[in-house]
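Sequence in, structure out. Go.
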Amino acid sequence: MCGIVGYVGRQRAATIMIEGLKRLEYRGYDSAGLAVLQNGGLTVVKTVGRVAALAKLAVGKKLSGTSGISHTRWATHGGVTDANAHPHMSSDGQIALVHNGVIENYVAIKKFLLTKGYSFASETDTEVLANLIAYHLAKEPENSPEGPRFLNAVRKTLLHVEGTYGIAVLSPAHPDQLVAARKGSPLILGVGDQEYLIASDVSALVSRTQNVVYLKDGELVHITTGGFTLNTLDLADISPVIDKVTWAVDEAELGDYPHFMLKEIFEQPQALENAMRGRFSADGSSANFGGLNLTAADFRLIDRFVFTSCGTGWHACLVAEHLIERYARIPVEVDYASEFRYRNAPLDRNALFFVVSQSGETIDTLAALREAKRKGYKCMAICNVVGSTIAREAGTPAPRLASPRPRPSPASSSSPPCSRSTWPACATCPSPMASNTSPASAACPTSPAAPSNRPRTFARSPCATRDSTTSSSSAASPSSPSLWKAR
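Output:
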């Protein structure tokens, strides 16, 4: 459950990145590190242990650079050692890289690089990626018609990679630049006031900016002090859509609780209330969900629900199975997302397929969604991050409004069913954060004692599934479709 934070701007990068890493500590990790561009080179600090230990080491290094990358690691390839901690440097010192995910063909790449004179100081697949970028950077001409040299070196490297990655890369040959890319592992760009941040989770950014761009699979972002460009691996320019985070930073903080699990336990009653508020008619007979692309007639044809998820999300589906079959009298099947695509299970043509993911990025759940869509089933997603991959691909996301819970890494099969205080409500629903009503007066008008013969009705609502201010038109007009200038 690794975390990434990167920074390009005018302030000291180390201080900002360490603050961001502390907001990702809930994930669990065994080591932490950072790299800062300064004095014409890269200064790398990393250690086994907590972010607090990293902060102490960084103080002694007098890190004044304004561009950097940082990481918290949960060991996969190689043991828990300082050498295996991120960031990783290429053996020629020209590349520093942090990485979430797994490079499946790293052994073959490593053998190739050894024949080219590159050496390795760790047991990780990430160091292989750093050296491969250095290899391409050494070959890349300074003025290429394909675009900036640094960006091209990263792009050409990723064309050879099999597996998943969320990466952020620095090079002393290209100061005040950062290249990041995503495939199967979430990355988010934060657009601030004359500064840019990259992170694996929005909670690491929200203290600096509320304007974010969610990178999609196969996209790269090239960040400089003057702006950023968004491209794909096949050189297509992309006009960014800037979303607005509307929850406050303190909602993702630990507060007075000793740890996040205890915070979540005590906030479950409020989280459940927030998830249901504004989603039922006054008499409790109809559910009001926005963004559904199924009509009432479509729902009446449904004769079976199929739920799929991972980790604690799967356990939440088991509870849903019990309740739906008891009260709605509709058969429900629950499948583990990591197994669904391999079973080739025969499903009824009138089944409605649900995927459940807190983060909207759980990789096995995403694969199950894609398999269900490939087979032609009607699909819906229940998740907590409106701009996530699963929410976008399902097309009918039902936000739980549960919290600004930081996203877990797709490499983990964990997706908690209920978490911290609130996630911004849909546009036409009462916002739990803005509401002045007491919990007693704002209680959801539903009752488990509702008659079992009540007609099953589904009402549509004009409720938006994304904040109305999140379109690119809300940002400053760019001088070109793919370059957003710093202001």
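Check: The longest strand covers residues 31-38. The first helix runs from residue 13 to 22.
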